[in-house]
User: Which sequence fits this backbone?
């Protein structure tokens, strides 16, 4: 039996690799996806995988795919879960799952495996994606199968079997980093009243310590997709990386929320998403000029459902794909620039323009005298709109309310 394991080189996946190899009498191929988590010491990961018993280590650079295939489509849909969470983890998982399944096909593996726990969303995201891509694949999820309950059990297992453990001390919370964001949860953050440790944040400067002078940045969009920063055209991953640096130094993009997990529990999470926070504000600014009112309102009604679908791990579902087609179809005229001022944790839109596709007509919008808009036309409009309210009001007055 061949198994492809989503492998990070940390304690959990090292123990999982050894456990699968001996429990299933399997050949294990370790698969490491680079989605921009940084500090990926490839030699150390390769050494750890081979020492623990992997037959192969595959390192897959998915940064460009992550940016182009999930981050930007979600941005075009203005996808935000429960009004705050930009879903950096949820958007990375389908990209990793696709890479994992491609690796399984390459090696002729019958199964894939992951280190997600039985309490979290990631197990659902990995497995929903896997089954959508290959309904016959077998999934091994050790945290739902073995008798071990927590980190202390894994440390004991590692010592018993001579598995090298990471030398760095584990922080008081769990952390997941990628090109789009860093998420923090668990440990000291499980008390929703407790403030995050001040030294926890890694992508963003403390807003209080951010520069005392604001910085302006201009983002250019073509068909709803960001293509340039301050006139410099960049590939998707490079654009996000550059904006992470710019927004991060001004402390932009921190959120601290209690969210509703798909499994039914509430979970406190802290996230820093500097680049996409700025890009989301910029995108909406260009849309404000270029989208028809009713189309925009219809799309906005769909955003919570779209975000819920993505959050729940259904990226490869027919409903997400159908909604994406609509979201993308209305973006063909979302072309233009947005200028934002970054200062002490805030990203404020201070200008927007679209020379070719704007629906904003200054001749109509002006409060000065004009020859386009006859203000007396509003009288009949208001009278018709008020008809039902006058009828309702008459009934209420007659009943003494």
Assistant:
């Amino acid at each position: 039996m061949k198994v492809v394991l989503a492998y990070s080189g940390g304690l959990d996946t090292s123990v999982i690799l050894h456990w699968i190899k001996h429990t299933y009498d399997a050949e294990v191929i370790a698969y490491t996806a680079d989605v921009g988590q940084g500090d990926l010491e490839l030699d150390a990961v390769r050494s750890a995988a081979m020492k623990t018993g992997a037959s192969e280590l595959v390192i897959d650079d998915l940064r460009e795919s992550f940016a182009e295939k999930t981050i930007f489509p979600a941005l075009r849909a203005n996808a935000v879960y429960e009004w705050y969470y930009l879903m950096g983890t949820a958007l990375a998982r389908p990209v990793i799952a696709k890479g994992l399944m491609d690796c399984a096909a390459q090696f002729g593996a019958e199964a894939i495996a992951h280190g997600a726990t039985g309490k979290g969303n990631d197990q659902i995201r990995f497995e929903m994606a896997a089954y959508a891509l290959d309904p016959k694949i077998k999934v091994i999820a050790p945290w739902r199968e073995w008798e071990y309950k927590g980190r202390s059990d894994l440390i004991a297992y590692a010592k018993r079997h001579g598995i090298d453990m990471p030398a760095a001390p584990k922080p008081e919370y769990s952390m997941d980093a990628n090109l789009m964001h860093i998420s923090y949860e668990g440990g000291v953050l499980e008390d929703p009243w407790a403030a995050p440790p001040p030294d926890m944040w890694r992508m963003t400067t403390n807003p209080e310590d951010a520069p005392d002078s604001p910085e302006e940045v201009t983002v250019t969009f073509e068909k709803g997709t960001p293509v340039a920063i301050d006139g410099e055209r960049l590939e998707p991953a490079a654009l996000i990386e550059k904006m992470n640096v710019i927004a991060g130094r001004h402390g932009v993009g921190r959120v601290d929320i209690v969210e509703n997990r798909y499994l039914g529990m509430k979970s406190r999470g802290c996230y820093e998403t500097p680049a996409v926070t700025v890009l989301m504000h910029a995108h909406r600014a260009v849309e404000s000029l270029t989208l028809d009112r009713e189309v925009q309102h219809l799309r906005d009604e769909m955003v919570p459902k779209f975000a819920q679908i993505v959050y729940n791990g259904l990226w490869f579902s027919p409903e997400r794909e159908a909604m994406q087609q609509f979201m993308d179809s209305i973006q063909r005229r979302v072309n233009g620039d947005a200028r934002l001022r970054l200062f002490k944790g805030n990203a404020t839109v201070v200008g927007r323009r679209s020379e070719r596709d704007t629906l904003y007509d200054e001749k109509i919008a002006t409060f000065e005298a004009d020859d386009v808009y006859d203000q007396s036309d509003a009288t009949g409009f208001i009278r018709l709109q008020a008809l039902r309210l006058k009828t309702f009001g008459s009934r209420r007055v007659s009943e003494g309310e």
In short: The first strand starts at residue 2 and ends at 6. The chain has a mean pLDDT of 94. The chain is about 40% helix and 20% strand.
